[in-house]
């Protein structure tokens, strides 16, 4: 039982990180109705900015303090992501208002490749380290209930807590604020939203800024765990099954989908892996997403679209 709970908790914590990345997809889709293939590039770009500014700021200021360097780097990297959001709206999205979804999709692919190249040009292509002070040593929980307790990695615990807090804030933002309701209106119909006075340009800037902050937090956490390298762009691919499972238009769906995928990957690898030769953790999420596409394409919490002819 202790081993099962240990695997379950590990899956839940990884699932929260998947949910965090998946939120970026959901945010952009809710505002523009397009699947943002640039999300992985945004995570990498934000992580590179965080890592490099944390190195440069002590040299620029002469203050050799990790907490100051990380805090200042987070603020500067956040401002960089805001600037990226503003440029995306000004140079790309503003000229594609009311265009077909396929056009916007290709635009996000172009943005992804641009950010990949710009990240290498500005910050370099080496492997960098982000040290935000999250402890990496394990702890043992429930040692009075189970012999030896349950082994939990402190870094995973802290990362899951940060992701959960951000997810909760974004959920409140969408449900309780006027801007959040405006975002949902824009996602439903661009022309109708403009006709009632919702400024489309401002809404798109806001949602890309929020998605940039989400990408920054996700990149910071994954960079602390894995190092900042260009394989971080594949983290977004791990979030694709999450948004398919939860629904492209649902923030709660991204949360639940991430938890299901995280737990499913861990449990299947541990309990089914020995019977199929291992490696099930790599493809489990995609097979589950395929099943949902076949039988419930809108996901668990997505809106079912009915075309009447």
Report on this model:
This protein has 12 helices and 2 strands. The chain has helices spanning 2-32, 39-61, 66-91, 101-123, 154-176, 178-188, 190-195, 200-226, 233-246, 251-271, 273-276, 280-295; strands at residues 138-141, 150-153. The longest helix is centred in the N-terminal third of the chain and has 31 residues, at 2-32. With 309 residues, it is an all-alpha fold. Helix content is 73%, strand content 3%. α1 runs antiparallel to α10 and α2 (39-61) packs across α8 (200-226). The radius of gyration is 20 Å and the shape is globular. The protein has a two-stranded antiparallel sheet with strand order 1-2. It has one domain (2-295). The termini are far apart.
SSE ordering: HHHHEEHHHHHHHH
Proportion of residues in helical segments: over 70%
Taking strands numbered 1, 2, ... along the chain, how are they ordered across the largest sheet? 1-2
User: Termini separation (Å)?
Assistant: 54 Å
According to DSSP, the number of beta strands is: 2
What is the residue-mean pLDDT, rounded to a whole number?
Answer: 80
Structure classification: mainly alpha
How many helices does DSSP assign? 12
Shape: globular
User: Runs with pLDDT <50, length 5+?
Assistant: none
In percent terms, what proportion of residues is strand?
A: under 5%
Radius of gyration: 20 Å
Largest sheet: 2 strands, antiparallel
Q: What is the count of distinct domains? A: 1
């Amino acid at each position: 039982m202790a081993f099962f709970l240990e695997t379950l908790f590990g899956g839940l914590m990884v699932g929260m990180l998947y949910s965090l990345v998946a939120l970026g997809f959901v945010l952009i889709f809710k505002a523009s109705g397009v699947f943002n293939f640039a999300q992985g590039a945004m995570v990498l770009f934000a992580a590179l900015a965080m890592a490099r500014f944390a190195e440069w700021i002590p040299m620029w200021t002469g203050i050799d303090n990790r907490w100051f360097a990380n805090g200042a780097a987070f603020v500067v990297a956040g401002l960089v992501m805001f600037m990226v959001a503003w440029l995306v709206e000004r140079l790309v999205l503003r000229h594609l208002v009311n265009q077909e979804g396929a056009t916007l999709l290709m635009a996000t692919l172009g943005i992804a490749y641009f950010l990949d190249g710009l990240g290498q040009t500005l910050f370099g292509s080496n492997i960098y380290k982000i040290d935000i002070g999250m402890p990496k040593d394990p702890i043992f929980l429930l040692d009075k209930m189970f012999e030896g307790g349950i082994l939990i990695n402190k870094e995973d615990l802290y990362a899951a807590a940060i992701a959960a807090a951000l997810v909760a804030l974004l959920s409140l933002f969408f449900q309780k604020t006027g801007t959040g309701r405006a975002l949902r209106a824009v996602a439903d119909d661009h022309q109708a939203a403009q006709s009632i006075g919702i400024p489309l340009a401002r809404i798109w800037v806001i949602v890309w800024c929020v998605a940039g902050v989400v990408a920054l937090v996700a990149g910071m956490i994954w960079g602390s765990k894995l190092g900042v390298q260009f394989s971080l762009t594949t983290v977004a691919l791990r979030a694709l099954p999450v948004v398919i499972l939860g629904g492209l238009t649902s923030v709660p769906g991204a949360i639940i989908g991430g938890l299901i995928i995280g737990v499913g990957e861990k449990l299947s690898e541990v309990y089914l892996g020995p019977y199929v030769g291992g490696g099930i953790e790599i493809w489990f999420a995609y097979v589950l997403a395929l099943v949902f596409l076949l039988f419930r394409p809108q996901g668990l919490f997505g809106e079912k679209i009915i075309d009447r002819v």
